[in-house]
Backbone:
């Protein structure tokens, strides 16, 4: 019974196709991608009180709300094509006349291309773009009413996650921190994918991520 | 006495509505085909480090028709400037598409420190007649000195909050644009707060019109005296 739980912590997860069999070995926390695009969440539940019928840990499953990471899965070729279009759009933004609202500076274009290539390598879907003027470009992904923005300037990058009610999270990176992009993009991916979940006390409904 | 009333004609209260007019092609991308809401609220850098944007105030736009007339005049002036400069083309011709509404209170709340947006020192909207438009208002945002890790990201955060508090769009086609086959107003997006509905009572609307007439008269009189 879920009501036995006092604390649940999300640990590292494995995502499998729905047709895949679960590993026979002990799998503490598994997400199975369903055809509907939602994730079925399977977790080991250790009873908090003596269990007279079955003393062994039980496995329970629940369907979680679609998360930011559950964007439509697209092939690498489609992804490449989308990013090529993005690259073309970025290039065009350098060619506008000075004073045009969509014009970006050459160093911003170079930084944006670098970030875009890392996004593609990390399998982010191609973002929408806009700018605040020549000094920055903003990559934007929307999921329902939530937004993720990546604001890229010539010498820094910032991520912002928001819901209609509030700004949920902001992360800043300097140019030095982006010389090794793997850490920055793994942080971004983690922020993009889901927020950490901690449930305290008895709960009746599945947690919303 | 007159001056006191005039002050009331210049003060924007928290509950007052402000409008942001959307104009094609500035607020659109992909060669003018796709509406981009973030370009609807352009924040301009000021020499003192603050941001400035233009809005219009319901005090002097008491009806939806007035809101749209303002937008049509805005697009007309932009086109005239380009025409005089010899730069007006079919592709860059400004076309008014409609307006979004937000409350003064939501703008001022940007300066309320919250964990994830605490670098705004002040956010204010003030009445400021511009290019003969009595309804024009300036949105001014001042940041805390030395408290901003990334100014461009701060702009993103501010735009996100402004858009989240908007309602609309109120779409419109100006008379001069009625022959455009695919009018860009059809592309305007609905913001998170949903569609705009003028929920003022008939009495309230009537009062707004009377107040508008009085304040406009006061402005004209003051200008004459000046």
Residues:
């Amino acid at each position: 019974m879920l009501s036995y739980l006092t604390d649940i912590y999300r640990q590292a997860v494995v995502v499998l196709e729905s047709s895949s069999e679960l590993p026979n070995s002990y799998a503490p926390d598994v997400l199975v991608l369903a055809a509907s695009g939602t994730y079925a969440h399977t977790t080991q539940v250790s009873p908090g009180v003596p269990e007279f019928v079955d003393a062994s840990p039980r496995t329970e499953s629940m369907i979680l709300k679609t998360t930011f990471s559950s964007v439509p899965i697209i092939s690498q070729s489609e992804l490449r094509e989308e990013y090529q279009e993005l690259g073309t759009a970025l290039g065009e933004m350098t060619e506008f006349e000075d004073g045009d609202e969509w014009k970006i500076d050459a160093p911003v274009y170079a930084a944006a291309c670098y970030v875009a290539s890392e996004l593609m390598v990390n399998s982010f879907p191609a973002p929408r773009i806009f700018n605040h003027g020549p000094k920055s470009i903003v990559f934007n992904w929307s999921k329902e009413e939530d937004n993720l923005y990546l604001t890229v300037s010539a010498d820094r990058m910032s991520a912002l996650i928001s819901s209609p009610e509030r700004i949920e999270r902001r992360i800043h990176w300097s140019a030095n921190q982006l010389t090794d992009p793997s850490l920055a993009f793994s942080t971004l991916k983690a922020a993009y994918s889901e927020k950490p979940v901690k449930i305290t006390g008895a709960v009746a409904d599945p947690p919303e991520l | 006495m007159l001056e006191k009333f005039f002050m009331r004609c210049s003060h924007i209260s928290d509950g007052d509505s402000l409008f942001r007019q959307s104009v094609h092609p500035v607020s659109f991308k992909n060669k003018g085909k796709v509406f981009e809401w973030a370009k609807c609220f352009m924040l301009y850098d000021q020499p003192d480090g603050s941001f400035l944007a233009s809005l219009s105030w319901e005090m002097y736009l008491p009806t939806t028709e007035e809101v749209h007339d303002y937008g049509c005049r805005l697009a007309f002036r932009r086109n005239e400037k380009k025409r005089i400069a010899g730069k007006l083309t079919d592709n860059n011709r400004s076309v008014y598409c409609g307006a979004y509404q937000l409350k003064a209170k939501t703008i001022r709340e940007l300066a309320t420190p919250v964990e994830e947006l605490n670098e705004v020192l002040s956010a204010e909207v003030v009445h400021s007649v511009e290019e003969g438009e009595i309804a024009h208002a300036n949105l001014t945002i001042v940041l805390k000195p030395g408290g901003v890790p990334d100014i461009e990201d701060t702009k993103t955060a501010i735009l996100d909050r402004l858009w989240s508090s908007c309602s609309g769009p109120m779409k419109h086609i100006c008379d001069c644009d009625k022959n455009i086959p695919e009018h860009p107003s059809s592309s305007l997006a609905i913001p998170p707060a949903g569609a705009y509905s003028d929920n003022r009572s008939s009495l309230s609307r009537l009062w707004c019109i009377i107040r508008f007439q009085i304040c406009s008269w006061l402005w004209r009189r003051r200008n004459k005296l000046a």
User: Anything to note?
Assistant: The longest strand of chain B covers residues 95-103. The radius of gyration of chain B is 18 Å.
